[in-house]
Amino acid sequence: MRYFDVRRLFAPHLCILLFYVYNIAGVAIPFSFVTFTIHRFCCIVYHTNLFFKTKRWVTICIASQWIGESVISLPFLFRRRSYCSNELWMQIYTCTMATFLPSLINTVLNIRIFAYVRSSTQRIQPQVIVIPTNSSNNIQQPIISRRDMSLLRQMIFIFFIFIIG
């Protein structure tokens, strides 16, 4: 019976593939958050377009996530230094691609979702508080509805789960 030999796993050319797969695994969860946010953004902002409610759109989102992860991990396949060393630039690249880039994309899309939902809420139900003052001018402040606050709380919660997890 043959046993698994760890030395074969770290053979020069297999080691490159191991780092490539390791990087894909490292960016898989952050990019699934990005895919989820893109899907949600398109479903909310373009709710009248029926394409964003189909299985084909979901398939495109999932396929583009895996293609994006594979492309982002390509620098691990085409490096010129020693094969089985985990260099500093590789760690910085993985950290940037797994943390900062997805956080930026999620934040921008969530802000756009919130702005869209907030503007649609104000179009449907303009709610304003009139604050009486001593002067003749009344200051009007918009009320943030429960729906908007709930959406904002959910977005902040998902962002913290993304960063902490």
UniProtKB/TrEMBL annotation:
The alphabetized UniProt keywords are: Membrane, Transmembrane, Transmembrane helix
| Entry's localization field | Membrane
Transmembrane segments annotated in the record for this chain:
20-45, 57-78, 90-115
A cellular component term, taken from the record's GO annotations: membrane
Family matches, as SUPFAM superfamilies: Family A G protein-coupled receptor-like
Domain G-protein coupled receptors family 1 profile as annotated: residue spans: 1-165
From the Swiss-Prot or TrEMBL record, give the protein name. Answer: G-protein coupled receptors family 1 profile domain-containing protein
